Automatic annotation (TrEMBL):
Keyword Transmembrane helix: no
UniProt protein name: ABC transporter substrate-binding protein
UniProt-recorded Gene Ontology molecular function terms: transmembrane transporter activity
Classification via SUPFAM superfamilies: Periplasmic binding protein-like II (SSF53850)
Cited InterPro entries: ABC_Gly_betaine_transp_sub-bd
Gene Ontology annotations for the cellular component aspect, listed alphabetically: ATP-binding cassette (ABC) transporter complex
UniProt KW keywords: Signal
Domain ABC-type glycine betaine transport system substrate-binding: 25-307
Signal peptide residues on this chain, from the entry's feature table: 1-19
Superkingdom of source: Bacteria
Amino acid sequence: MKSIFIALPLAVASTFAQADGSCGKVTIADMNWSSASLIANIDQFILEKGYGCDAELVPGDTMPTGTSMIEKGEPDIAPEMWSNAMRKALDKGVEEKRLRFAGNSLSDGGEEGFWVPQYMVDKDPTMATIEGVVKNAALFKHPEDPEKSAFYGCPAGWNCQISSGNLFKALKLSDAGFDLIDPGSGAGLSGSIAKAYAREEAWFGYYWAPTAVLGKYKMVKVDFGSGVNKEEFIRCTSKEDCLEPKVTMYPPSLVQTVTTEAFASKSPEAYDYLTKRSFKNSQMNELLAWMEDNQADGDVAMEHFLTEYPESWKPWVSKEVAEKISKALANL
């Protein structure tokens, strides 16, 4: 009986805490790549300072985090979930009312494509098209064979090696004199762009966003003139055994904020913030470049973003919440 009477005030206190808008303890997956870590730190600060949550960052990665949220109901929030990696499981989690899709972390989705430097397009606008690139193939000097042109593909062993190789074949780039170069690593690929930029040389190859590289070096995605054929991309372009790939632009990858149903139901105001919090790739590219240049982790980059870009985050929250966050920033 004594234990019942001791527990009763705690239960009543908990009820009042939820009634006054406090969202209580919240766990947020801090994924092991820069953009996800930045968003996780932003969510933690805003939920704590703006909504009174007791927000904790926990280590995360796509598959383990998604599985844990479905099976165990934790963590409460995955700020940057590349949903296509486990589409069926996540959809089932939503259908069973275990999860909710709050919104898109990246409003224009994860982006892939074949790119050329902005300065090439400034000199010749046709370089923004595959026809212009093919016509000027001789500009793209091969590092080892003067008789060939260079196309930098995705590093061996990466999933994107399959799609970039299939599109190289579909576009008949070999017939135009291009050689598909394996850069050896992500660093090798980004280094080839940096080298070309330093010399203002021609460069043509595969890359993706959001990345610090596309924040530092202004690149233009080459238009294949085909539009996006998502069914073809899924059926063949992304498959290793695709024998006759067809030309298609890369479909954007769905990048979402996922929460548990329990969190969304318990904390509707905090959940509403997550439905509005979203970044464009162009802005995330710039933020990632800043992080790399300043050797900043997610926490430092969070303070930079909230301090320097109030016009970006204030529309995500109410005026009252914005004032709380601004006051907390001033006290850092």
